[in-house]
TrEMBL record:
Ranges for domain Transcription elongation factor GreA/GreB N-terminal: 457-524
Domain Transcription elongation factor GreA/GreB C-terminal, first and last residues per copy: 534-604
Organism in which the protein naturally occurs: Haloferula sargassicola
Top-level taxon: Bacteria
One Gene Ontology molecular-function label: translation elongation factor activity
Protein name as it appears in the record: Transcription elongation factor GreA
UniProt-listed InterPro entries: GreA/GreB_C_sf (IPR036953), Tscrpt_elong_fac_GreA/B_C (IPR001437), Tscrpt_elong_fac_GreA/B_fam (IPR023459), Tscrpt_elong_fac_GreA/B_N (IPR022691), Tscrpt_elong_fac_GreA/B_N_sf (IPR036805)
The entry's keywords: Coiled coil, Elongation factor, Protein biosynthesis, Transcription, Transcription regulation
Presence of the UniProt keyword DNA-binding in the record: no
Coiled-coil segments on the chain, per record: 499-526
């Protein structure tokens, strides 16, 4: 007890119980205040009932004695928070040289557990520089996981938990798995075991029962969480193959059997997994599907995302089946069914594995996808493809290099009319095309004037656009605003999927509103009566004959009137632009939609369109 208090007790002027409480706020003692944090009592004036306290961020704070007793808690001198007041330089040195010891010390002072957010509040800006905290914490997490002293959660809002000091690293890893309550956490725990299999060379008994328990979890998850079940079984197999002392029971679920049984559901499920895990699972395809393994892989090629596409291509190439991959991609290009991820892979590998696929048709495929995605109501799926077209400085040059003059002009015209690009981006892309094909330069000035002209549209298509705008303003945008407000009420916006999804949809809706407004401002409705039939114009029906004697008929109508099944084309489309202003007897190249190849036709007749 403080000497001043002992004298007062001995003189009978202070009761022992009160003296003991006062001793907790005596000079040299540490206190914890709810708002000011930890502090050290520097001096007191008992007659005046005043304390002077050095808090972490506020030195020499005067406080009423009674108030201090009521509003603070005693803090042991070996508590982390007390050390921040007394020995901050020592903690900073510890953060630099031994982050594991620092975090363990911090957790010990918080009953063995705290969230990552709470840890950051305790360290950032004081023990660790605020600007350097993220980098420091990334390194500290790796060290903590390697030490096995702390259970490190996947999310910031979950708790870091201190393990018992006498738990072995192997037992700690098994404990992490046993504490996991969902397949994702189980996979992470099993992944950590795979990374440290050497710990189990002499302690494999615990792993044997763990491996056997995976079967039940995988079986239960197959229907609703197939991808995670496959991931878990793949990790299990790595453990088994890495430790000869571990075996699978005859009744255990085999990864190859599950792949075969769930063949129709594999694409999207595998696409959500990490690159390493997809690679491990694809390696099992030959065992699962026998001679059909390449066919099955190509069947999911468009559904597994960028990482999956690259891994499938690598495995097929490594096993000498590149020819089948090339034929698959060529067929998909001809059918216009090649999605963004395979197309990105073809572009990136155009001088390597995909050299046999890359051709001028790639340009048309890219523009088709960008335009289709632009007109859809959902979130964008071609953003990365659009970025690649802009970022790869040689891509457009490579696309038009093998094109003839007419084909290059048609491609350049489509690029100029593509609504996806901003004006500056469009000019930059066209400059690359013109550099590779100077003959396309004449389109630029002509396009600039044409884009300022009204859009010729049918009254019916104009009404549809106006109805879409009205629905956006009256229904979809207000509903999206409500969705954002509801999602925001769920809290923690960093981990709030509903909020992020609603905000993404907001961008889509507002972008669509702007586009519709621009289009409607330029729109000029017409019924296509009395067109000039001396050449192909908007509102005319054109009869064509090919070099082989085949007949075809196209109706050229307004900007929003395309209907390929009825051979109605917009005057702004590739085919419409090629036909426009042609006269009887003129020859014109039009792309065949079935083969995606250019075909030469002769204009046989031009007649007015009858609605």
């Amino acid at each position: 007890m403080h000497p001043d208090l002992e004298k007062l007790v001995e003189a009978g002027r202070l009761k022992p119980a009160i003296a003991e409480r006062l001793d907790q706020v005596a000079p040299g003692k540490f206190l914890l205040h709810g708002a000011w944090g930890a502090g050290k009592v520097i001096e007191w004036d008992l007659p005046a009932k005043k304390l002077t306290i050095d808090f972490e961020h506020q030195r020499g704070q005067q406080m009423d004695l009674q108030f201090a007793i009521q509003k603070t808690q005693p803090l042991p001198e070996d508590d982390f928070r007390a050390k921040k007041v007394e020995s901050i330089e020592h903690l900073r040195e510890l953060a630099q040289n031994d982050p594991v010891a620092l975090v363990v010390f911090l957790l010990e002072s918080h009953d063995g557990a705290m969230t990552v957010d709470a840890l950051e509040r305790e360290l950032s800006g004081t023990v660790v520089e605020e600007a350097a905290f993220k980098k420091w914490w990334d390194a500290a997490k790796r060290a903590l996981r390697e030490s096995k002293r702390v259970i490190v959660p996947g999310r910031r809002t979950e708790q870091l938990t201190l393990r018992d000091a006498d738990v072995s690293p192997a037992d700690a890893l098994v404990g992490d798995f046993e504490e996991a309550r969902d397949l994702k956490s189980m996979s992470k725990a099993l992944e950590a075991i795979v990374a440290d299999l050497s710990l189990f060379r002499t302690e494999s008994a615990a792993l044997q029962s763990l491996i056997e328990s995976i079967d039940d979890s995988a079986k239960k998850a197959t229907r609703l969480q197939l991808g995670q079940a496959l991931e878990l079984l793949s990790l299990r197999d790595e453990v088994v193959s890495g430790l000869k002392s571990i075996t699978l029971n005859d009744e255990s679920v085999r990864l190859a059997n599950l792949l075969l049984a769930e063949e129709t559901r594999l694409g999207e499920e595998l696409g959500a997994l990490s690159t390493a895990r997809q690679r491990a699972i694809y390696e099992v395809f030959p065992e699962a599907f026998g001679d059909r393994w390449v066919e099955v892989m190509l069947g999911i090629f468009d559904d597994v995302g960028t990482r999956g596409v690259a891994e499938i291509a690598r495995i097929i190439d490594d096993r000498g089946k590149t020819g089948e991959l090339v034929e698959h991609l060529k067929g998909a290009l001809a059918r216009r069914s090649l999605g963004p991820d395979p197309l990105i892979w073809v572009v990136r590998e155009r001088r390597g594995t995909a050299s046999g696929v890359f051709s001028p048709e790639i340009g048309a495929a890219i523009l088709n996808l960008l335009e289709t995605d632009h007109l859809s109501d959902g979130p964008r799926t071609t953003t990365r493809l659009q970025s690649l077209l802009s970022d790869d400085k040689e891509l457009l040059s490579d696309i038009v290099a093998e094109m003839g003059v007419t084909e290059a002009r048609n491609f350049a015209r489509r690029l100029l009319e593509c609504p996806v690009f901003a004006d500056l981006d469009r000019k930059s892309l066209m400059a690359r095309v013109i550099k590779a094909k100077p003959e396309t330069g004449e389109l630029v000035s002509g396009n600039q004037s044409r884009r300022e002209e009204p859009l010729v549209v049918s009254w019916a298509s104009l009404e549809r656009k106006q109805a879409e705008m009205d629905d956006l303003i009256r229904n979809r945008i207000p509903q999206n605003t409500k969705d954002i407000a509801i999602a925001r009420s769920y809290g923690d916006l960093r981990e709030n999927f509903e909020y992020k999804s609603a905000k993404d949809m907001q961008k889509v809706l507002m972008r669509r509103k702007t586009e519709l407004q621009k289009e409607l401002d330029r729109a000029q409705g017409t019924d296509f009566k009395n067109p000039d039939c001396s050449s192909v114009n908007v509102g005319t029906v054109v009869t064509l004959k090919s070099e082989s004697g085949e007949d075809a008929k196209f109706t050229v109508l307004g900007a929003w009137d395309s209907d390929p099944e009825k051979h109605i084309v917009s005057y702004l489309s590739e085919a419409g632009a090629a036909l426009l202003h042609q006269k009887v007897g003129d020859r014109v190249e039009i792309r065949d939609h079935d083969t995606d190849q250019m075909k030469v036709w002769t204009v046989e007749s031009i007649a007015p369109y009858a609605s």
